[in-house]
Structure prediction request, 549 residues.
Amino acid sequence: MATGVGSFYKGSDLIHDYSCSTCEENDLNTEAQHFCPQCEHYMCDKCVKLHGGYFKKHVVYGRGDIKKWAGFSMDICDQHGNKLEVHCDDHQELCCSVCVALNHRLCSSINHLPDLARGFLETAEFKQLPAAVDKMRSSLGELKNVRTKDQDSLIDSYNNIIAEVKALRKNINTILDQLERKTFEQLDRMMKDLEKSIKDDLETCAQMHDQLKTMIEQLQKITGKNKETSSYIGYRKCQSKLSEAKCLEQVIRQKDGMKFKSDENIVPFLRNLNNFGNIEGIHVNKTQSSAKYSVKIEADDAVCDIVCICELPGGEVVIADYANSRVKLLNRKYRVTDHYNLPGRPLHLCHITDNDVAVAFLNKSSWCNEVHFLTLTRGKLQAVRKFTTDHETWSIAHHQSQLFVSSNDAIYLYTIEGTFVKKIYEAYGSDLQIKCAVSIDGERIYVITQADSKLTTLDKTGRVLSTLKDADLQGPHGLCVSPSGHVFVCGFASDTVLQIDHEGRQKLVTVARKVDGLSTPQSVWFSEQTSTFLVGSFENYNITVLKSC
Prediction:
């Protein structure tokens, strides 16, 4: 950058980062020292004085505020403040004369902007630009709202963790208090025992002391004709008492007082701890792109209605088509490769183990609620066995050979063989249409009820742990727990898919919305093999595949 303020004719090779606009109009090459954003003029020291005389209320920025100079002007170079004149095809950049002189002298393809712009107003890409900008602005607005909610959620998480740490500290203090109390109780018992032992020893010593004194005094007083015999008898008794006293002395001398030896594992264990636990960031899944894939087959009589989706270990996808009474098999490219016809409309299905799935539906021919087990063998879905229930089968979930089957208002536990065990949970209301999923460890049961738009989390005994409502969760219709434990639920009325924390207490993020291609979603699955969401919708021939980031 040149530092002088003198003027040169425009033919000069001297290049400035910003040139005085007024001087440039007079074919002079002068470095600008000032900028007026209202006039969008760059000025040298001489021209700024003239400008100040005409526009006294204009705010002019000097070199100290150079970041404010360029502002935003369509046809002005952001870097140098000059008019944009050409386009460098090599670098795909709009350039002013200074850009060309400094950075693009060796470029092979530089085109004049008026030539490139000729007829551009009538092109489809130009006419579609406002809509694309509006769509992006809308998306950014939603993203801003989401991040604002994330900020509030972050504060809540921070406060919750502090509360958990304090609760843990309180629990540790309680445990330490209990250990201290038990140690003192042990000390008190030992103190009483030792006090009694010392008291008994003192009494025994005093008694032995007096007995020896009496015996030796009596021995020394023996007289008469039997003195020798009596003395011998006295001697033997004294010797016996001395032996007894010697044993007593040895026993008492071997007795110790009290000593304390702390558990050598406690202090090193505490010193090796860096903190009370690991604070982990929760992985939040967000949509990067979306696509539609048709799941219609020639045999379908009605518009598809995908009420449930799950993935097999090999990457194949199994879907339940309510409207056409079929279970369909999709390959990794989401093409239907096989199907299994049911004697009724499937309401839900779940993965069991390996290539086995369980399907819950109402058998129209017998009007019985049934669970059918299917397996994938050589690319074909085949029936294995079935069992019936005495209640509706709105959903089914599996965990370690246990089946959780929900009706309109309750959840029942069955063995994998179909034997009824017990009723776990019962809700009260009309048209609840309960659907459930189970956490990976089996400790939590996630329950959605479409009528009251809420997610309820139970423990494995059916006790309510938490209840969640959210503006983005209206008419929840489908939910899933991914293989690593992430919880997702879709809102039928809100056209959304949400990620929920594993405790079921709060929404982590709204993964997808209507702008991502969702419309009345009623089933969702998250594939960790491909990092994609598979969403089934009401009366739609397509499933929506959302790429996660």
